[in-house]
Specification:
The complex is a heterodimer.
Chain A: H1 2-11, H2 14-32, H3 38-45, H4 54-79, H5 88-128, H6 141-156, H7 163-178, E1 180-182, E2 185-187, H8 201-220, H9 238-260, H10 267-280, H11 293-316, H12 322-333, H13 342-345, H14 347-377, H15 383-402, H16 405-423, H17 429-451, H18 463-488, H19 494-507
Antiparallel strand pairs in A: 1-2
Helix pairs in contact in A: 1-14, 2-4, 2-14, 3-4, 3-12, 4-5, 4-11, 4-12, 4-14, 5-9, 5-11, 5-14, 6-10, 6-17, 6-18, 7-17, 8-15, 8-16, 9-10, 9-11, 10-11, 15-16
Chain B: H1 2-17, E1 34-38, H2 45-59, E2 66-70, H3 77-85, E3 92-97, H4 98-106, E4 117-132, H5 140-149, E5 155-158, H6 165-177, E6 185-188, H7 192-200, E7 206-210, H8 215-219, E8 223-228, E9 252-259, H9 265-279, H10 282-291, E10 294-299, H11 300-320
Parallel strand pairs in B: 1-2, 1-3, 5-6, 5-7
Antiparallel strand pairs in B: 3-9, 4-7, 4-8, 4-9, 4-10
Helix pairs in contact in B: 2-10, 4-11
Classes of the chains: A mainly alpha, B alpha/beta.
């Protein structure tokens, strides 16, 4: 506890507070700009570490990391343009909320959810950093594969009202995900080296969401009267709070462990959180049309996973994300080796960092919450100009992901695909899920089978994997029971909503 | 003062990140701008090498400012293709290394290193052979014995995809000790982090990689180094070289600088002199020490011969594996 107080003393010096503030602002900025992620921002700032103290640099970096996680949600909600793959899910419900005049509430629940999750995550770090040792490394490819299967299974529940359309979209996504180099062999690259690393998920998300949407709106601009987006309340209502707090906590519970284990990442927990909230919500009919739970849960999940990432980084010197890798490099440039001895050798640094994470979170909330109604006003811009702006940001984002003109051609092609999907009423979420989860699933399966020399039984050779398969089995049983019961009760309430949703999909 | 400066740099970078740069008059020789291609992402090995070199040159005012571009894709093949397309451009250099030589083959690209203008070799890093603390392999001889007996029983992990240094090293090592490279069970991981995890969790038997990312685990005794791959022992690592351990192989992961094809002799001399001056600076020496790189500076005919030799060796290995 004394150490923690010392940590706050380190983090609360005016100078370090300033660095935290700069970090948070920078992070929010790079999060808002699609394509420039926190990893790239940190890499560009690495030279700064040569001239400032290690505590200031790390505190600033942590601010950038958290800020980036938060900033990504702003463009997702307002412009349907996710800046990072972990805020893709936020765009689904968040943008729908924005369009029905609830942008301020969506931004607020994202901000508060991020704060709650980030704070709980950091407290968990305080508790776990000194204790947790080598548990996380016992998870191998079979366990990760099982978790990916679970994620896939969970998202088939969010396929939308038409299972057929949902699966078409999912397989389109898996098809896009096949492009690239697997086990040393080029696949579906058509001899083009630009495709050898696969298609960047940011390019896919921006193309399908933002460009597809802009084209769709443009195609209907003359035919349909302009819908005026209602202004709505500036703050969250009591009901919004009531519907948000549980998803925040559940999202945190999903996000933190995924951040903490080496191959977890921030995307899978957002999917799981979304699927869970849809299942548990008292208003399942609102999902796909702007349910606040669908913003609150995934946003909390992605911030909690950012906090979780610090755990293996500080305790084992294991970076689990690109951003964490660069933070590791920064520490090494000061001659500090993260690892089990870090806490003994550099207690001031570690506790200072942990304290500054809380401060960064609080700063983010203070900065972003009052901004929410202001941001929401952005949507009052007349549509032609608004969508011109979206196109500009989307193109910039796709270009800055790799600085490759080739990506722009891909972006246009994917935008056309997005337009076609809207025309034929295909939901876009399963496609994105396929693009993100497909390669992860394949990688874990390949690694597991390479290690076992093709012996399939390795897939259930780890306790965690067995437990996860048991959960999937239980879910299957529950679904089967539910289906049988549903058949027995006549006049199922699902029918009218189903029609609504299909109509919604077509009208979009 | 330093901190204020850092703040200003941070702010300036914010502006840069927003996409606005300031260009100065290009006619003034002091303002001469050089471009540098980096074939991987910010923070990667080529990136650190290239940016350290550019910094050393700029801080000593050996030349004007550098415009550094990270061109990612296919482990450097995309950047090599760009370099080939820039035929004759006299303001460009590109950082590359062993991994790029391999990637060009695995991607079946035409933009091979031998078509470019060699400028200089800058640094090298040794590979290490790592095992978990409780591994039955106590020495390199133990590993070689088990490997020869049944290559399929030994899982070898590395931090690079096929064609990269961590893949080429075990293949050439296997070839040297009499194991067919085709029989080696190589499992690629996405860099040092995931490889460390796999080793600590004892998911694989052996890991082959540069040792920079493993220092703390080695220091704590969680991972052991059976041998290092260079011609001299590494400071701070208690392990023999391959030659000392009875295997006749020297293998290093090197990085250097190429220029586009068909540049003038004068330009080639200018770039070579520039890097030679850079090599002598204090900043570069510091960068070598900070990053744990070994100096293996070479220019002219020496580097050219070296490239030819490396290219042939990589081609041999990959062809035998059916990857080139």
């Amino acid at each position: 506890m004394d150490l923690l107080l010392d940590g706050f003393q380190t983090a609360l010096t005016p100078e370090n507070l300033l660095f935290a503030l700069i970090g948070v602002l920078l992070g929010t900025a790079v999060g808002v700009l699609p394509g420039i992620g926190p990893a790239m921002a940190l890499a560009l700032l690495l030279p700064v570490t040569y001239s400032v103290g290690v505590d200031s640099a790390i505190i600033m970096f942590a601010g950038i990391y958290y800020g980036g996680m938060y900033g990504g949600s702003t463009t997702s909600i307002l412009l349907n343009t996710p800046g990072e793959s972990s805020s893709v899910i936020t765009a689904i419900e968040g943008n729908k909320m924005a369009k029905s005049g609830r942008a301020a509430q969506a931004l607020a629940t994202a901000a508060i959810g991020s704060f709650v999750a980030g704070t709980i995550g950091t407290v968990l770090l305080w508790v776990l950093v000194p204790r947790v040792a080598d548990i996380v490394v016992t998870l191998g490819a079979p366990s990760y594969f099982a978790v990916m299967v679970l994620a896939f299974f969970a998202v088939t529940m969010v396929l939308g009202s038409s299972k057929l359309r949902g699966f078409i979209s999912l397989f389109l996504g898996l098809g896009i995900a096949l492009v690239g180099t697997a086990t040393g062999q080029a696949r579906l690259t058509f001899g083009n080296a630009q495709l050898a690393d696969g298609i960047d998920v940011v390019v896919v998300a921006v193309g399908i969401f933002a460009i597809g949407e802009a084209l769709w709106v443009a195609a209907h601009l003359r035919r349909k009267p302009l819908e005026i987006i209602p202004v709505g309340q500036p703050w969250m209502s009591r009901d919004d709070w009531k519907r948000s707090w549980k998803p925040w906590l559940r999202g945190t519970a999903f996000g933190f462990p995924f951040g903490a284990v080496p191959a977890g990442g921030a995307e899978v927990p957002t999917f799981l959180s979304y699927a869970t909230e849809q299942k548990l919500s008292k208003h399942p009919e609102e999902f796909g049309k702007g349910a606040i739970e669908g913003v609150a849960g995934p946003e909390a999940a992605n911030n909690a996973s950012a906090a979780g990432t610090m755990l293996p980084l500080l305790t084992l010197g294991l970076p689990t994300t690109a951003t964490a890798t660069i933070m590791l490099l920064a520490l090494q440039s000061y001659g500090i080796q993260p690892g089990p001895q870090l806490l003994t050798n550099e207690p001031a640094l570690v506790w200072g960092l942990l304290a500054s994470l809380v401060i960064a979170n609080a700063l983010l909330l203070v900065i972003n919450l009052p901004m929410a109604p202001l941001w929401a006003k952005l949507l009052q811009i007349p549509r032609p100009q608004l969508y011109a702006g979206i196109l500009f940001f989307a193109t910039l984002g796709a270009y800055t992901a790799n600085f490759a003109p080739f990506d722009l051609a891909l972006l246009v092609a994917l935008g056309l695909l997005g337009l076609a999907m809207r025309r034929f009423g295909l939901p876009v979420l399963p496609l994105i899920v396929g693009v993100i989860l497909g390669p992860a699933l394949e990688l874990q399966l390949t690694t597991a089978l390479q290690i076992s020399d093709g012996d399939v039984s390795t897939l259930w050779g780890e306790p965690v994997a067995v437990a996860v398969y048991a959960v999937i089995g239980l879910m299957l049983v529950a679904m089967a029971v539910g289906a049988v019961r549903g058949r027995r009760t006549p006049a199922a309430p699902a029918t009218p909503t189903e029609n609504d949703e299909t109509e919604e999909l077509v009208n979009r | 003062m330093h901190r204020l400066l850092a703040l200003l740099i941070a702010l300036a970078l914010t502006v840069l990140a927003a996409g606005c740069g300031v260009t100065r008059g290009a006619d003034d020789p002091d303002n001469r701008r050089l471009r540098m291609f980096i074939p991987n992402s910010p923070g990667g090995g080529y990136d650190l090498t290239g940016r350290a070199a550019a910094r050393a040159m700029q801080d000593n005012e050996l030349t004007g400012r550098f415009e550094i571009r990270n061109i990612q894709g296919a482990s450097g093949t995309v950047a090599m293709q760009r370099l080939l397309n820039e035929k004759g451009s006299d303001d460009l250099m590109m950082v590359m290394g062993l991994g790029v030589v391999g990637a060009v083959y695995t991607n079946k690209s035409e933009a091979t290193p031998l078509k470019m203008t060699p400028i200089a070799r800058l640094v090298e890093e040794q590979e290490g052979i790592l095992v978990p603390a409780h591994s039955p392999f106590k020495t390199l001889a133990d590993l070689v014995e088990a490997w020869k007996k049944d290559p399929g029983k030994v899982t070898v992990g590395g931090g690079s995809s096929p064609g990269g240094p961590d893949h080429l090293f075990p293949m050439q090592l296997a070839d040297t000790v009499g194991v067919a490279p085709k029989d080696v069970r190589y499992i690629p991981y996405d860099g040092g982090g995931p490889l460390t995890t796999a080793l600590l969790g004892e998911k694989i038997d052996v890991g082959m990689s540069g040792l920079g990312e493993f220092e703390s685990q080695i220091e704590e005794g969680k991972l052991r180094v059976l041998a290092v791959s260079g011609d001299e022992r590494l400071d701070g690592i208690d392990a023999p070289t391959l030659t000392e351990a009875g295997v006749d192989l020297i293998f290093t992961n090197w990085r250097g600088v190429l220029a586009p094809p068909d540049i003038s002799d004068a330009q080639r001399t200018y770039l070579t002199d520039l890097l030679t001056e850079m090599h002598a600076t204090k900043e570069w020496k510091e960068a070598l020490a900070d990053n744990g790189w070994s100096d293996n500076f070479a220019t002219g005919q020496e580097f050219e011969d070296f490239l030819v030799e490396q290219d042939a060796r990589v081609a041999d290995t990959l062809k035998e594996l059916g990857l080139a």
